Amino acid sequence: MPGVLAVVDGRQIAAACKPIQTFINQIRYFGIAVEKTLYFGEPVAMVAASSLEDAYDAAEHVHVEYEPLPAVIDPS
Asked: Average pLDDT over the chain, rounded to whole?
């Protein structure tokens, strides 16, 4: 799309960056969903554009298919 510089997903971020340090060392967190979301509202894609309007227009074309997973109610 005109004005769009890049659109990246969690796999691309994980391949290019180190995970964010968390208190739980078993969790590799990148600030964006990689393979599956961890919580409602977690970012699933990032858009870089020359203007905010171009970024919003491109974000409207991002399509995500979610597959519901069972809830985890016992963290042990």
From this structure: 89
Residue identified by tokens 């020359």 is 50
Q: Which residue has the tokens 């600030």?
A: 31
pLDDT for residue 40: 87
16: left (phi over 0), alpha (psi -120 to 50) or beta: alpha
Model-level pTM?
0.72
The sign of the CA dihedral 28, 33, 35, 37 is: positive
Report d(CA 43, CA 8) in Å as an integer: 11
Output the CA angle 38-42-54, nearest 5 degrees: 155
